[in-house]
């Protein structure tokens, strides 16, 4: 067994967290299983690499503090909901709820001190872990309470539609964490009693924790200070011989710097150097800054390390001090005296100012500084290094003045690697060959090449080099990551799913910008990143940071699963292999498990009670296995937000109890080729946002799916002939009810649509966020088909559509009038259109 994280909350490493990692290194390297994978120097380098790329200006937020914030929000929200619903599903807990809020607020006030002290004090560390456990427990109970309120709402809607009698006759059971009961007053009473008792028990534990805090004499701090990451400050000095490549970029930049022209008649003008972390922007700027021609041409030259945040007073003081360090105004804490000082000493001079590592300027804090520099001589320049394209825009730099730094060539990257890896040692043909393969994994990033080369410098044997070469590359898809984060409530915005997605994209973009990922896969239409990889060195570090909660289980053939013990504190578990390809019952010990991934590719059977003991799960991935049947007990996972059963090619049906997963947001059934139909009970999944059914060619989708008004992603709709039950089948026109659809949609078997009116009723014209559309008709028809033309002309799409693909359409004219309104269309594809002779809209 070894440690791993698959679904880690997006985080930034503060100096305190980084220090904590270093303090735990001695423990880490005492573990034989880990040292066999990563030597002491390797780990130090991986930490340094991560630290260099980590987020600056971050709040130190412990898991305990994050959980407390979520729980307090839940308590307030649930109290409000009970009032709004005019129903008391949980009684006699008002005082308990008040006590919970009181204790949580009291504990929250000392968390900063506890977080700092737990690095060295084991008893404080244990106190925090106990607090986390209680916070997880109350989070689960409150989520169940909220789910019961949601169930109550659904019951009322069912009653309004006259369906409550039918449901009672069928005895549809709701698998709630208390004993499974059917709809009815008895079930409600049991649930109320269960939640009330558990809240009282948890409150007693929390009360003990709150009392114990007094034993540690924590310092209270009701207002959390923001701790800024102490990034290494750069300077203008560099060993020129250590910089390899960049000749073309240097020649272009030198030409722009030494030219006497000015930007739009202004002086100075800004030249941004833009590129992702690790590309060597600072080293490139240092190379140019120290060029003899630059030294002669500009007087003065000023280097300022800006970093994050963009503090105009700090920057102005650095410039003023470089101009005249004896001027008393440089000690001012106000901006105006500093700008006056700069304006006075810069007058008539041709200067060069380097602003290194710029992150977050705004127009309001950049313009005053720029105005103070306006009376300089023609030809003055401001050179800026940044990872963010928006910085160039804020600073007013035209597109043709931006230097986009790209990756090094393979040859330059190899030269840089060899220069460091073989420093003060003889070359070895075998090691050089392995090194060449290692360099390919760097993808042209100078920082990655230097980091790995520094690591290899101290490795002497071929085996050590091969071990590094064989490090894994971890694949991720952007949307998958965002949906994982949503399922764990890391992006919680009080039910505003659109904001959650935006925040998730911002998290992902930040991780990309800070070089967490590499080797990007991009969308062929708009060049957006849709997939990426993470190098094993960085992955190992993330594993270490989350070692207490995240594990991976890999079973050797000689190791029987029954002897494997998983810590009951584990929250996220990935099972890569199991004994005898059977369900690992040892995980039942993990009562608080929130993520379960089983990726053995061979798991054939799920026991009937497989989920009855794992009721806290939020994320469940069982894709790419051999599952034929999903047990009814899955309906008991009331916290479940994410369920992936994709590529279980023998799976034929889902149990009705799936409809009891009221909190489910994402359901993935991609390439379940034998899946025949979705249960009608899915109509109750009012929180479902993402339904993926691509590759389910024979799947009958029930008409009730049209009731899921929050559904945002429906990637695939393969129209079916309903036969005797045709009225119960989801038809093309039913898409009109799904107003929130966005992203991509493929509609297949369009030949089964009744006529053009069905296409019109789909109301695609109202789906402004639906950007990619595929219309798939039928193969193998030997003559033109007028019905195809009628259906195609019946569609109306929103002008935001970016890509359109039409397959198997058997008409002679393949350009309906509505296509001319697609002003944002970037990609248009026609496939298998054997009778098309005209690609133009009809003339009115």
Automatic annotation (TrEMBL):
GO molecular function, a single term: ATP binding
Limits of the Disease resistance N-terminal domain: 68-160
Keyword Coiled coil: yes
Coiled coil: 202-229
NB-ARC domain span: 247-424
PANTHER family with a match to the protein in the record: NB-ARC DOMAIN-CONTAINING PROTEIN, PLANT BROAD-SPECTRUM MILDEW RESISTANCE PROTEIN RPW8
Protein name: Uncharacterized protein
Keywords: ATP-binding, Coiled coil, Nucleotide-binding, Plant defense, Repeat
SUPFAM superfamilies per UniProt: L domain-like, P-loop containing nucleoside triphosphate hydrolases
Protein's GO biological process: defense response; response to other organism
InterPro entries in the cross-refs: Apaf_helical, LRR_dom_sf, LRR_R13L4/SHOC2-like, NB-ARC, P-loop_NTPase, Rx_N, WHD_DRP
Domain Disease resistance R13L4/SHOC-2-like LRR span(s) in chain numbering: 610-830
Domain Disease resistance protein winged helix: 474-542
């Amino acid at each position: 067994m070894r440690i791993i994280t698959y679904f880690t909350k997006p985080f930034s490493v503060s100096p305190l967290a980084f220090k904590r990692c270093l303090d735990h290194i001695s423990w880490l390297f005492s573990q034989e299983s880990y040292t066999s994978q990563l030597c002491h120097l390797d780990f130090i380098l991986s930490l340094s690499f991560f630290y260099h790329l980590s987020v600056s200006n971050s709040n130190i937020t412990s898991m305990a503090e994050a959980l407390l914030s979520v729980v307090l929000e839940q308590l307030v929200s649930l109290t409000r909901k009970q009032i709004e619903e005019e129903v008391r599903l949980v009684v006699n807990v008002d005082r308990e709820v008040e006590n919970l809020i009181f204790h949580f607020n009291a504990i929250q006030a000392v968390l900063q001190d506890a977080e700092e002290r737990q690095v060295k004090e084991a008893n404080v560390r244990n106190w925090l872990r106990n607090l986390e456990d209680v916070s997880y427990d109350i989070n689960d109970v409150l989520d169940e309470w909220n789910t019961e309120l949601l169930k109550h709402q659904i019951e009322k809607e069912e009653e309004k539609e006259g369906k409550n009698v039918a449901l009672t006759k069928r005895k549809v059971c709701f698998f709630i964490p208390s004993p499974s009961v059917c709809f009815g007053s008895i079930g409600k009473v049991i649930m109320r009693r269960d939640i009330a008792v558990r809240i009282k028990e948890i409150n007693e534990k929390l009360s003990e924790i709150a009392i114990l805090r007094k034993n540690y004499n924590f310092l209270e701090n009701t207002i959390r200070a923001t701790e800024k990451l102490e990034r290494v400050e750069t300077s203008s000095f560099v060993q020129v011989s250590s910089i390899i490549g960049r000749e073309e970029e240097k020649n272009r930049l030198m030409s722009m710097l030494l030219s006497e022209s000015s930007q739009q008649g202004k002086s100075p003008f800004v030249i941004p150097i833009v590129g992702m972390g690790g590309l060597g922007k600072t080293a490139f700027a240092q190379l140019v800054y120290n060029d003899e021609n630059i030294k002669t041409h500009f007087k003065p030259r000023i280097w300022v390390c800006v970093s994050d945040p963009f503090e105009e007073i700090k920057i102005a003081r650095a410039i003023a001090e470089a101009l005249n360090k004896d001027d008393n105004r440089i000690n001012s804490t106000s901006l105006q005296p500093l700008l006056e000082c700069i304006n006075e000493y810069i007058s008539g001079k041709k200067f060069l100012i380097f602003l290194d590592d710029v992150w977050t300027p705004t127009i309001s804090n950049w313009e005053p500084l720029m105005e103070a520099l306006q009376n300089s001589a023609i030809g003055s320049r401001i050179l800026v290094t940044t990872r963010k394209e928006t910085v160039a825009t804020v600073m007013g730099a035209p597109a043709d003045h931006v230097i986009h730094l790209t990756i090094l060539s393979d040859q330059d990257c190899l030269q840089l690697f060899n220069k460091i890896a073989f420093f003060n040692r003889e070359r070895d043909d075998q090691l050089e060959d392995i090194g060449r393969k290692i360099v390919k994994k760097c993808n042209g990033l100078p920082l990655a090449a230097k980091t790995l080369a520094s690591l290899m410098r101290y490795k002497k044997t071929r085996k050590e080099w091969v071990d590094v070469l064989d490090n894994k590359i971890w694949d991720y898809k952007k949307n998958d990551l965002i949906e994982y984060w949503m399922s764990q409530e890391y992006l919680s915005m009080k039910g505003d799913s659109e904001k959650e997605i935006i925040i998730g994209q911002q998290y992902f973009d930040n991780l990309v910008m800070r070089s967490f990922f590499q080797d990007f896969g991009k969308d062929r239409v708009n060049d957006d990143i849709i997939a990426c990889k993470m190098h094993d060195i960085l992955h190992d570090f993330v594993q270490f940071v989350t070692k207490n909660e995240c594990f991976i289980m890999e079973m050797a053939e000689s190791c029987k699963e029954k002897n494997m013990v998983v810590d009951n504190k584990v929250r996220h578990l990935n099972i890569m292999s199991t004994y005898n390809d059977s369900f690992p019952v040892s995980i039942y010990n993990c009562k608080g498990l929130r993520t379960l991934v089983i990726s053995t590719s061979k798991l054939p059977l799920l026991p009937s009670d497989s989920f009855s003991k794992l009721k806290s799960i939020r994320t469940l991935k069982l894709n790419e296995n051999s599952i034929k049947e999903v047990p009814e007990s899955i309906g008991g996972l009331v916290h479940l937000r994410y369920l992936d059963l994709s590529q279980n090619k023998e799976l034929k049906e889902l149990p009705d109890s799936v409809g009891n997963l009221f909190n489910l947001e994402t359901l993935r059934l991609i390439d379940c080729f034998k899946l025949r139909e979705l249960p009608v009970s899915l109509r109750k999944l009012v929180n479902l946002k993402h339904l993926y059914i691509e590759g389910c060619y024979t799947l009958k989708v029930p008409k009730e799916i049209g009731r899921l008004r929050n559904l945002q992603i429906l990637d695939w709709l393969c129209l079916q002939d309903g036969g005797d039950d045709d009225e119960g089948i989801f038809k093309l026109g039913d898409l009109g009810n799904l107003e929130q659809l966005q992203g991509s949609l493929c509609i297949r078997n369009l030949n089964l649509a009744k006529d053009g009116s069905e296409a019109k009723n789909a109301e695609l014209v109202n789906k402004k966020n639906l950007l990619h559309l595929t219309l798939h008709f039928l193969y193998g028809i030997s003559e033109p088909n007028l019905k195809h033309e009628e259906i195609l002309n019946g569609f109306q799409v929103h002008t935001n559509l970016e890509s359109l693909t039409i397959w198997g359409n058997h008409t002679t004219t393949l350009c309906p009038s509505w296509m001319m309104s697609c002003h944002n269309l970037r990609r248009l594809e026609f496939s298998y259109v054997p009778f098309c002779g005209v690609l133009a809209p009809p003339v009115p």
